[in-house]
Design brief:
It is a single chain. The protein starts with a strand and ends with a helix. Helix 5 packs across helix 6 and helix 18 packs parallel to helix 19. With about 575 residues, the chain is of the alpha+beta class. The strands form five sheets. A five-stranded mixed beta sheet has the order 1-5-3-4-2. It has a four-stranded mixed beta sheet with strand order 9-11-12-10. A three-stranded antiparallel beta sheet has the order 6-8-7, with no helix packed on it. It has 22 helices and 16 strands.
Length: about 575
């Protein structure tokens, strides 16, 4: 076998059938190109040479294309005499490959860093983000006993792994010693992660600035496993974080702002005689600010001082006018207690929904279930109650494991929820976006019918006819008849009836127009828009025909578009 240095652009060779007929994805090709540009091609391509001196490539086509793309002038190739095993070598190179163990990869990255490779240089050479290099280095510093167990194939779930890797080594050692499995048992990663879990408060929830940060000695750490574009800085010094938030809040209260304290369960405690309001606060109302002790975020609620009730509560009047209070039986849990339980459940539910290991089948079932919730109203004219549909996937209070049934009910639930009908208010732009996403335009029936065409104005009808090669007639009904005849063997769908949103509609949807706003006056909103787009107006352009009744083509073009 001979090593030759050639200019890859001038290399002449035969290319037999490549066993890899499906090209690698663009991301892989870009990674190979970036890595080769940083450190060169690691393994030269292999060629076979015939007796007449002609070359045939066996392996390394992607490497060769990468060298040409990088404008390499000197490129190493291996040349050997042709033999019957060449085709097998081409296949074997693509099949007999073993990726590095994750633990070996973590350790290799840390080893490179110890050899004075910067994280930026490692990232460039391996064609991966610098953030990923930081993640791999952090994982390499996990307790050796834990790494050894992971290397044996007992890999924890990613949310457990991130908790373990973020903890100090001394704490990892304590947690491992307390939860170390026996030889034949699996590791209880949940227990280890739970022992190492520390409450974190994130910089993205901080209102305070650099002054308070320095004054309270807050140092940020970075959650390397969070999404790259998210501010993932956090601190475990929760007392300092909460104190800094409090200091900022006291210095930045608005005119009607007050600081309210929390109850023992962490809920805001309104002043005596105050009632919370959910509508837009007036000038006489107050805004109460409090610090969520769980996240550290500053939150607010609006309230007003309720007027004192003049009538007695909880009793009845005697003949002489005196109130007699009836004894009450105290329930096991008061209404306030049930409110607290409700908030606890909600927070726990939201945390559980954030778990990355929730399967698609479970999420689909939960979305269907959510449509039957007490706080959801569906107005589409559907005659089947949503709960009737949902009951089909719930058995004894548990979600069924039948994937086909869940899919079938999901389709029925979407059909019952998504509507473009104006008379039921419909689902607004949401239904049209959904239809566009799944190609529902293909299911629209022809509109060149006696039922639909009368809804078009004369101008719109003639425009449609012109697109089909139909000339305008003297009378509207004759033009309509000609359009129907011309479209007898084809399907006609008006562009205005297709699902895709116009640029203006898409921009409106992106704004808060379709979202609830406390500033919108009562009566504004979707109903008004639908009424506006669906209004009928007089059209004086139509000429009457010879019949006693006038032609009914009076609708405005806007109505045709809305239909």
């Amino acid at each position: 076998m001979e090593l030759r240095i050639v200019d890859p652009k001038t290399l002449e060779f035969k290319d037999t059938k490549d066993p890899r007929t499906i090209a690698a994805d663009k991301t892989s090709d870009d990674a190979l190109k970036a890595s080769a540009k940083a450190i060169g091609i690691i393994e030269p391509p292999l060629f076979s040479e015939a007796e007449d001196g002609s070359l045939t490539i066996i392996t390394g086509r992607r490497r060769l294309r990468t060298a040409i793309a990088n404008k390499v002038k000197e490129f190493a190739i291996l040349v050997k005499p042709a033999d019957p095993l060449d085709n097998m070598r081409a296949v074997a190179e693509n099949v007999i490959r073993a990726p590095m163990s994750p633990v070996d990869l973590w350790r290799a990255i840390e080893s490179l860093a110890s050899e004075n490779w910067t994280e930026e240089a490692i990232a460039k050479s391996l064609a991966i983000p610098v953030r990923q290099v930081k993640q791999l280095r952090l994982l390499a510093k996990v307790l050796p006993e834990i790494l050894e167990r992971i290397g044996q194939g007992d890999m924890p779930q990613i949310h457990f792994l991130r908790t373990i890797a973020s903890a100090p080594l001394s704490e990892q050692a304590e947690a491992w010693e307390a939860n170390k499995p026996k030889k034949k048992d699996g590791v209880s990663w949940h227990a280890i992660a739970n022992a190492l879990s520390r409450r974190q408060m994130f910089a993205r929830d901080a209102k305070f600035g650099a002054t308070e940060q320095q004054a309270f000695g807050i140092a940020w750490s970075e959650d390397l496993f969070a999404p790259a574009k998210e501010d993932s800085r956090y601190t475990t010094d929760t007392d300092a974080f909460l104190a800094a938030q409090r200091a900022w809040l006291e210095a930045n209260l608005g005119e009607n702002g007050t600081i309210i304290e929390l109850e023992q369960y962490g809920n805001p405690k309104l002043p005596k005689g105050a009632e919370r309001i959910w509508s837009t606060p007036t000038a006489d109302d107050r805004i109460g600010y409090y610090i969520d002790t769980h996240s550290g975020a500053i939150k607010s609620i609006a309230y007003r001082i309720a007027k004192k009730a003049s009538a007695s509560v909880g009793g009845h009047a005697t003949e002489d006018g005196e109130d007699v209070v009836q004894p009450k039986t105290r329930p096991d849990i008061t209404g306030k207690g049930m409110e607290i339980i409700g908030e606890m459940r909600t927070e726990a539910l939201h945390k559980a929904l954030s778990r990355p290991d929730l399967g698609d089948q479970t999420l689909i079932a939960l979305l269907i279930l959510a449509l039957a919730a007490d706080n959801v109203t569906v107005r589409t004219g559907n005659t089947t109650p949503m709960r009737t549909l949902v009951s089909k996937i719930v058995e004894g209070g548990k979600i069924t494991a039948d994937t086909d049934l869940i899919r079938a009910i999901a389709v029925q639930a979407l059909q019952a929820t998504l509507s473009c009908q104006l008379k039921y208010n419909g689902s607004g732009a949401a239904a049209r976006i959904a239809g566009d996403a799944i190609g529902a335009d293909a299911e629209l029936p022809t509109m060149a019918t006696e039922d639909f065409l009368p809804s078009l104005s004369r101008a719109a009808l003639e425009k449609l006819g012109s697109s089909m090669g139909v000339l305008p007639r003297g009378k509207v009904k004759d033009t309509r008849a000609a359009v129907i005849e011309q479209a007898r063997e084809t399907r006609v769908v008006l562009p205005e009836a297709q699902f895709a949103l116009s640029e203006e509609e898409a921009a409106r949807f992106s704004r808060d127009y379709y979202q609830y706003s406390a500033e919108v006056d009562e009566g504004d909103g979707e109903d008004e828009e639908l009424s506006e787009s669906g209004k009928l107006t007089e059209d004086s352009q139509d000429e009457p025909d010879d019949s006693s009744a006038p032609d009914s083509d009076n609708e405005d073009e806007d109505h045709a578009a809305a239909a």
